[in-house]
Design brief:
The complex is a heterotrimer of chains A (780), B (299) and C (159). Chain A is α+β, with helices and mostly antiparallel strands. Chain A is built from 20 helices and 33 strands. In chain A, helix 15 packs across helix 16. Chain C is an alpha+beta fold. The longest helix of chain C has 17 residues. The N and C termini of chain C lie far apart (49 Å). Classes of the chains: A alpha+beta (780), B alpha+beta (299), C alpha+beta (159).
Chain lengths: 780, 299, 159
């Protein structure tokens, strides 16, 4: 398949590579401007409290700029603007006198240096009224007074919060009572997944410069340039043509940059008050109190016939969302969508409840509900297979939602059809590569070290496109321009978080124009010079984002061909593009008449000198499907039954990404997704002290452990297989990888542990302590 | 909230060129010394240390001395990696090598010193149990009111008073670690359990074993992270000293480690797990030390 | 608090500075000398994003006071290539796809280069030992292992 492509499927040095390896790449935390002030956020030491008074006298005497809820804009908003307004709950204000978590913010100060800002922050005097705090969902839901939020808004309608329940969602299809009656076998289990911290290496940062003509320029850590601009414009009442949010590469996001970080709002407030550039870069401790993954606790009940068909499913989920609503409503819907889309069920009922607690607010992290759901569903498939006496892989192949079927993707409002499906190919190839059936049959023995083999599958939607508009916005605006020397510029606010999204866009354009990859550039982008792009999330970067760039590139090519046809005295329909490998030139030639030819450079240059114009085109493009990027993992582990330690020995990963635009970067996505998944399974969790509400790990990296270079296998032991599929609705046949790389790994690892020691864990993470508890301590 | 981007606390800074100068400065109340920095700088950031003066010891030439021809003499400024890379340490003190190479990453070990590690007196410090079982001592210096430089020797085992506390007087500093020479019939080993390799130990065990034929002539076992200070495992030692070494005896001895330790539940692990995994670590360290002492296959 | 006049040698150049005793080397490098390739990731020595070479040895600049560095040769990522277009380890990281968001990359490259100088033909275990302290959240370390092997090969070929 890749033989038909000149550039796609080949690996090239990535565009920002040189800047990054030389330390020259500027991230938001590296930016510095003349006469800049440094901000420091004023934070609550209490999990739940009200402020009776603030005294800035001493801080002001030091020359610090001070701001609080008393003088900042106080309108309600949601930091995340991905959902349409009618589906957006608003419970945030920039500052508040009602502190809802340890680390919640009531104001900020700015001074000439970070040290002086710290001094000023410590000089601020506050009178506190400490309130009872709710640190478990049970306590929160039992409360009828001193609620974490009393009144919030859904769009612009007031909503009264009762019992700290942020929102609920119910999705029903068919009649599950009837469905369970038809079942020969029913299994019910409770699953729990942890509050995993994104731990992106660059802490959240923002620099804001107030402009002399009014308005602001903003350099934030973000995945969402335009949503940040719209939010800031709205909250600070600045016309959008005077709010310029610059796209700056960030040091990792993993979902924590989908919403506009509070730092951006606070920095803007300070900058406007001081009328000077202000920069705030969080400490790691502040960052750990800033955002965390949605945890989950849900019961899953599934009914199946003897023949393996699923007759009914009932999922009841409680999600502890911490002290703010970022995208909980959407999250509950996404859980139902992923559940429904994994396997065919004749009937289903999903009930989700999002509960406020006085903890770190939750937001999307790679997978966004899919890892939580896939863990339970895949574990359940193993349990069902065992009960039915079926091969767990055969059971999945029989029931998975695949080619030609309608699937929900991220929720019932995004139904679309599946046009490409590499599931069976990946499973069969992977099982062969790792010798799954042989390893499964192997005797575990009674020695100290027990090996186990596990398998799980899953998917992520490539974006959130659909035939109808839904609850979330999804489109990208792009511009493609041909320069007079034949080089090409791509302008879009689409963000690349490191995975190679923009490289993919460049490569697709290179392919479309048959122009060498190094001649296609990604222009610097900001919100004033680009049209709306919803943001890079939901694994939409390549399929939707680069897909939009591709559609626009085709239009630009039409204009170029029009100029070429005039120049060559022919018709646009009779032109073809030819890339000359030896010269690196690209020719536009008349089919069958190769002597009637000109290079792209010659055509563009000619068009300029003839005043015909530039070959340039700009448009917003929406994808009307969100094809599943299927993945699966075969994992071999070794459990030390004396210490409970789990070692990852070997991984064979399968990725159905359609046409793989950047193979090496796609492999990198699988490696990274697996690594963060393994962290969720074996190590990562954040917990709050039951009385103080502080993080038990003191918000320190010392006690937030993650898989390290010792714990991850090398490339010889981590193979990635790509399916040979072609997605007809995707740019050059491409789908996504991103979150799919995470979703199916946790149950694969848990299933391998179960195979090794005969214990199935339904609560993550699984520590050595848990393993020893389960298998009983070995007598020496 | 803690701000690890800066050091908020202010202090005076001295960089003396001689030990006498350093000791005189250290007589000032509120002074503290700085060697590798990997503990003190964090304590400054976390504000668990608020000295009025910091005395950097790097200018004192003799503190950089590291000798390994007759036992080990490790000056207070010698970075751990230098000791770790020494052939003699790898061959003659493999337990010490194992302990040092498990402290943090390369960068930390390029800066951190053993003297600093034990002076910090964390019950989880990796070097402490190994130094204890090898019979290491620390050379401690101070200056009296008459400006005389005083020096005394104290066994490392006697140094620790509690978590983060030593028996050093306020104006005393460790200037060197002395480790006695070990014969070829002495084996040392160090085992640890942690959540991942780059981590503070949740439990650790060090063994120094002197073999005579098939017997364990003398033995020292010390454990870390399972009490307020690193502890000697007297009960375990009692079961092995003088005995003929057999697999069963080692396992039985390791089994009773719970009698010698007082682990707790904390953010890293549980009391229950530590009680259990300690048996594994002690057993594995004993087997390893026996092998290194020249002992043959255990029956 | 008084400030102290010091001279720092960074990337081959001598800088005259007036610093407070409590200023970290990391912040002086970033804020005063504008060498922003050295990063703040945690401030407590757990992530190694602040790695610099001091007298050719990788150390953590968030754990060192600027005043401690008088008379030391400091090299940050910006100075690694020593006037050449690039250092072979930098090339290797790009070629092997070991650069994703890139925030950990300067520290990884510096530490890897120091490893290969000490051990020209490192095995995977040597690389793990040397880079254990270097945190990366994107790559899962798989490509990084490969890149260091490739960089080592390039460095051997050059010498």
């Amino acid at each position: 398949m890749y033989e038909n492509y000149q550039f796609v499927g080949k690996d090239y040095p990535r565009k920002e590579g040189k800047a990054r390896v030389s330390g020259k790449e500027k991230y938001p935390s590296d930016l510095s401007f003349d006469h800049m002030l440094y901000g420091r956020i004023l934070r609550s030491p209490y999990a739940h409290a009200r402020i009776k008074s603030i005294d800035f006298t001493e801080a002001r005497k030091m020359g610090a700029v001070c701001i609080s809820y008393e003088d900042a804009p106080d309108q309600f908003f949601n930091v995340r603007l991905v959902s349409i307004p009618s589906a957006t709950y608003k419970d945030w204000t920039i500052f508040s006198d009602h502190m809802r978590q340890v680390g919640d913010f009531y104001g900020a100060v700015a001074a000439e240096t970070e040290e002086l800002a710290e001094k000023a922050a410590r000089a601020v005097r506050v009178e506190w009224e400490v309130l009872p705090s709710y640190l478990t969902m049970e306590d929160a839901m039992a409360a009828s007074e001193n609620l974490i939020h009393e009144k919030v808004y859904l769009h612009d309608k007031e909503v009264i919060i009762r019992n700290n329940i942020a929102c609920t969602r119910e999705v029903v299809e068919g009649d599950i009572e009837e469905g369970f009656k038809q079942a020969d076998v029913i299994i019910e289990e409770t699953f729990e997944t942890p509050r995993q911290y994104h731990c992106q290496l660059e802490t959240k940062t923002c620099v804001v410069r107030p402009e002399p003509e009014g308005g602001i320029t903003v350099w934030p850590t973000t995945q969402a340039v335009h949503n940040t601009r719209i939010l800031l414009g709205k909250v600070f009442t600045i016309p959008l043509n005077k709010v310029n949010v610059v796209r700056v590469p960030g040091g990792g996001h993993f979902g924590s940059g989908i919403h506009t970080n509070p730092v951006a709002l606070i920095t803007t407030a300070l900058a406007l008050k001081a009328n000077r550039t202000v920069k705030i870069s969080l400490s790691r401790e502040e960052d750990m109190y800033d955002h965390v993954r949605y945890p989950s606790k849900y019961t899953l009940k599934v009914g199946a016939r003897r023949d393996g068909t699923l007759t009914a499913g009932h999922m009841k989920a409680y999600i502890d969302i911490g002290c703010h609503h970022v995208q909980a409503l959407a999250f509950l819907g996404v859980m139902s969508g992923f559940w429904h889309s994994l396997y065919r069920m004749e009937s289903m009922k999903y009930e989700g409840t999002a509960v406020y607690t006085n903890k770190v607010p939750t937001c999307a992290m790679q997978g966004y509900g899919a890892p939580q759901v896939t863990f339970g569903v895949e574990s359940m498939m193993d349990m069902l297979a065992e009960k039915l006496g079926m091969d767990p892989i055969a059971l999945r192949i029989q029931n998975y939602v695949g080619l030609g079927e309608i699937f929900w993707g991220q929720g019932p409002t995004i139904k679309s059809k599946i046009f490409s499906d590499g599931v069976v190919e990946l499973i069969e190839k992977g099982a062969e590569r790792i010798k799954y059936y042989e390893l499964k049959k192997q005797e575990k023995g009674s020695g100290r070290y027990r090996k186990g083999i596990g398998f799980a599958r899953g998917f992520h939607t490539s974006g959130t496109g659909a035939p109808m508009p839904g609850e979330v916005k999804d489109y990208t605006t792009a511009q493609v321009k041909v320069n007079e020397d034949g080089s090409i510029d791509i302008l879009t606010a689409l963000m690349d978080q490191g995975g190679g999204t923009l490289d993919a866009a460049a490569k697709i354009v290179a392919e479309e124009f048959q122009v060498s990859f190094d001649k296609v550039g990604i222009s610097p982008a900001d919100s004033r010079s680009t049209g709306y792009d919803v943001c890079t999330h939901a694994t939409r970067g390549v399929y939707c984002g680069a897909g939009a760039v591709h559609e626009v590139a085709k239009e630009t090519k039409k204009i170029l061909f029009d100029y070429a046809s005039r120049m060559l005295d022919t018709y646009p329909g009779s032109l073809e593009l030819i890339y000359e490998e030896d010269t690196g030139e690209t020719r536009i030639s008349v089919v069958g008449n190769p002597e009637r030819t000109a290079t792209i450079a010659e055509v563009a240059d000619h068009a300029m000198n003839k005043d015909w114009g530039t070959a340039i085109f700009s448009k917003s493009i929406r994808k009307t499907a969100c094809p599943p990027a299927y993945t699966n993992y075969f994992v071999e582990v070794e459990v030390d039954t004396h210490t409970g330690h789990v070692r990852i020995l070997r991984v064979v990963a399968g990725s159905d990404a359609g046409t793989v635009i950047n193979p090496d970067l796609a492999r990198g996505q699988m490696h990274g997704g697996f690594y963060r998944s393994a962290g969720m399974v074996l190590l990562e969790n954040t917990q709050h002290d039951g009385s103080t509400g502080e993080l038990t790990n003191k918000a320190s990296l010392l006690d937030y452990k993650m898989m390290g270079i010792d714990e991850m296998p090398d490339e010889d032991n981590f193979e990635v297989i790509f399916a040979s599929t072609y997605e007809p609705t995707g740019p050059l046949g491409a789908k996504g990888v991103g979150e799919a790389a995470f979703n199916s790994a946790p149950p694969a690892i848990a299933s391998a542990i179960c195979d090794a020691i005969g214990v199935r864990f339904t609560k993550l993470p699984i520590s050595p302590e848990d393993i020893l508890e389960a298998i009983g301590e070995k007598k020496l | 909230m803690i701000n690890t981007r800066i050091i908020h606390h202010e202090f005076s800074y001295s960089n003396p060129g001689t030990l006498a100068e350093a000791l005189e400065l250290n007589n000032e109340p509120g002074s503290t010394v700085l060697a590798g920095g990997t503990d003190l700088i964090n304590r400054l950031k976390l504000e668990t240390a608020t000295p009025s003066r910091i005395i950097y010891l790097a200018g004192i030439r003799e503190l950089w001395d590291f000798c390994c021809d007759d036992g080990l003499k490790i000056g207070a400024m010698v970075p751990m990696r230098r000791v770790e890379k020494c052939r003699t340490v790898q061959q003659r003190y493999p337990g010490l090598y194992e302990a040092l190479s498990s402290v943090g990453g390369w960068q930390i070990r390029n800066m951190a010193t053993i003297a600093g590690n034990i002076a910090n007196a964390s019950p989880a410090a990796d070097s402490s149990p190994v130094l204890m079982v090898c019979g290491a001592e620390c050379e401690i210096s101070s200056m009296d009111s008459k400006k005389n430089v005083l020096s005394r020797i104290m066994p490392v085992a006697d140094l620790f008073a509690g978590p983060g506390k030593t028996h050093l007087a306020d104006n005393e500093i460790i200037t060197a670690i002395l480790v006695p020479p070990l014969g070829s019939d002495v084996g040392t080993a160090f085992e640890r359990s942690a959540r991942v390799k780059l981590d503070v130990a949740k439990a650790s065990a060090a063994v120094c074993l002197h073999r005579e034929g098939t017997r364990c002539a003398d033995i020292a076992v010390a454990v870390g992270s399972v009490g307020p200070v690193p502890l000697r495992a007297g009960t375990v030692e009692g079961m092995l000293k003088g005995a003929v070494m057999e697999k069963k005896r080692i396992e039985d001895a390791a089994e009773v480690i719970a009698d010698d330790i007082t682990p707790i539940d904390d953010v890293r692990s549980t009391k229950k797990y530590r009680n259990h995994v300690m048996k594994i670590l002690v057993r594995d360290a004993l087997i390893s030390a026996w092998k290194r002492s020249g002992g043959g296959e255990l029956k | 608090m008084n400030t102290i006049s010091i001279e720092l040698n960074v990337n081959g150049r001598d800088w005259q500075l007036s610093v407070a005793p409590n200023e970290m080397l990391l912040n002086v490098l970033r804020e005063r000398l504008h060498y922003t390739g050295t990063k703040y990731g945690c401030g407590i020595g757990e992530c190694s994003a602040c790695t610099v070479l001091m007298d050719d040895t990788p150390v953590l600049s968030c754990q060192i006071l600027a005043v401690q560095c008088v008379g030391k040769k400091i090299v940050t990522i910006e100075g690694l290539a020593e006037g050449q277009e690039s250092h072979p380890m930098q090339d290797a990281f790009i070629e092997e796809g070991a650069v994703q968001c890139g925030f950990c990359t300067p520290a990884m490259v510096l530490t890897a280069a120091a490893l290969v100088k000490e051990k020209p033909d490192p095995e995977n275990q040597d690389i793990r030992d040397a880079l254990r302290g270097n945190f990366c959240r994107c790559t899962g370390y798989v490509k990084i292992l490969k890149a260091v092997q490739s960089g080592a090969r390039k460095m051997r070929e050059l010498s």
